[in-house]
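Lab notebook, bench 4. We co-purified these components, and the gel suggests they stay together. Before we commit to crystallization screens, I want a quick structural picture of the whole thing.
Request: model the full complex, all chains together.
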Amino acid sequence: MKVIRRLGGWRELLLRTMGWLHCALLVALYYGTVLRVILGEESLSWSLWRAMLLVIPFAVVDFAGEFSRKMWQFLAVGLGACGLAWLLLGYPLAAAPVAVVCFFRGKNRLSEDPVESLLDAPRLALVLVVLPPFLYSAMNGGARLQKVCFLWAAVYLLLWCARTGLARIQGYLALNQKMAGVPIKRIVRTSGLAVVGMVLLAGALLLPALLMEDGYFHIEEQKRQTAQAVVEIDQSQGSAFQVPEWMRAMGENAQFHIPPFFSYFLMAVGVALAAMALLYGVYLVLRNFRNSFVDHRDVVQYLHGPEDKLEAAPREKRKRPAFWDRSPSAQVRRKYRRAVLRLAREQLPQWASPQEIEDQVGLRDQRLHGLYEKARYSREGCTVQESRELKR
Amino acid sequence: MIVLLLAALFFLQSFLYDRLWGKGLEAKISFREEYATEDDTAVLTEVIVNNKLLPLPVVEIDFHMDKGLRFSGEANTAVSDRSYRRDVFALGVRQKITRTLEFQCARRGYYRIDQAGLDVRNLLLTKKYVGSSPQDTDFYVLPRMVSTQRIQIPFSRIMGSVLSRKKVYDDPFEFAGLRDYSRGDPMKYINWKASAKTGDLLVNIHESTLSQKVAVVVDLEGLGVQQADVLNEEAMRIACTLCVRLLEAGVQVEAWSNGLDALTGKPMAVPEVSGAGSILALRKTFACARADNGLLPIQSFFPGEEGDVLCVLVSRSQREELARDFAQRAGKREWVQIVPYRESYQELPQMGMVQRLYWEV
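Here is the predicted assembly.
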């Protein structure tokens, strides 16, 4: 705990970890590509995973930069980290990236104002480092390497998104760290969950699609008269879904085929809707359990809906009920109107109150009067029983 | 396609916040009490309501007021010409947060908050929205009462003057009780009903009415120099305490000052009040008076030469010219001048019937 506190808390540690992963990803891509060139397609997967072990020496160098008291101690640890990288990957060249990181960390240690280098955090522009391996795979028929390139780019983008989002939260909190009463936990919970949610959603949509994708971009140089390079794009789309026989039979003769990207889009929309429904369900469950609580000096209360709203004034009920309105209140009002019109000999003024109208026409039915006022002016209106009673 | 979908999601979030960030968002800042006395501790309440289905991870509320109120834990307060405060809140979906801030009333005055600024960030903290919310809350810091022991000396002198010249009239509307009839009592004072009940003659006793009026005049000239600020504040405390004591004693009081009233922008004026019920209103008026430079000369607030008013001048000024003007206006009336001082004072010569008191701060 003391170590984490010294590093600036678990959020700072998480950001640093993402920095190590970023370095390891960069090295892993090129390490894997080089081994693919030398040893062939089979070496690709294990070499990538093995290269990710470089996270350990990167972390060691980072910790050494923070915790070593003397420069020579840092250099000794750095040397050890380089040795560890050699040991982990089995090639002396593996120590080179660790040495570069050591150099920047050491430089920051010596300078008064540390400068963030490209090796500290993922950058959007660095996704372009995937281009050389991708072009190599396209020109030399490395379908597996190409798939790895796509996956790598997606993972790196996700890492960049997550790191940028969290860094923004951490930046805001660091800016206001001297302020009292900042609800750090609630800010982190709200914005952090949003970042994590978006990254997870992006990952859930991107990674399965890339894993299922069998397409392959192939650039083939054809020897023709013009000696021009012709780019051919083979894109055999392997569907992830088993199409039913009846649909296949129906579709074989048909000209129209649902484009695969559209079906995937529909699936994504479905997933998004399901996720939203799930989130809304969680919200509804939580709403029933939550109560007011005190967080430091803040009393946090939940607004529970109608009872917290201002009581809505009843709508003005001046117009006669609509023709299709068969509610008990409407029936009572119609009955009253008929009774009044039956007795009235002349036009009744619109401004008159029910009592005035009744006095004028000579209607003496207290029951009808009471029910009419209830139907017209009360909020709840008349009940079915009351309406039926009046009909008898 | 997927990347486009994700980008659309991001922009949808941004669009929703652009449109709806201010919907259902309310901020209300209010002082819990209406007034407090100098050096007391009071409470300010901030209530923020987010009545919509969008969470607001960061809502900053800022407001400013006069720097006489000191918040405990000054971390969120920047004090320069005024006191600027900023607080951060995190509001979930349909949430209401109430935060209470304790502060110390460091200086007498009238404090008002008219507006609060709102800085809201969107879900991913990528955008900032700025707005404001009108507020309507005010607070009086009443002048501290000086100790009874110290005020007793000037108060006794004033009351001595009052009593020596008071004219006693029986007030037929102020019934004080009954006593046995004695020879010489006017017949109109006999209470016939009570006499019939007891069988002995009883007469009514009435309260007397004080016709004496006291005018307290406070000089608030001078601002910015520490000595002047301290002495002016003490002058207000002395004047306020005297007024309160006089009102409690049943004397009619009026108070004048060349200091401007924070509410009206005119020189402080309490035309004529009496009774203990007026004490709070009087203290509030004293709270509103502000010292300043270049105010009207205090001489213009002295009562007229006619009338039986007893005037008490509270001024830090030790100028002979002021003392002479005061004595000249007093004429043969026994007026009182109180001179607060800090380290030393220069004894002014006795002028007319004016009694002069020096008050060490």
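Residues 225-241 of chain A have pLDDT under 50 and may be disordered. Worth comparing against the SEC data before the next meeting. The first strand of chain A starts at residue 216 and ends at 220.
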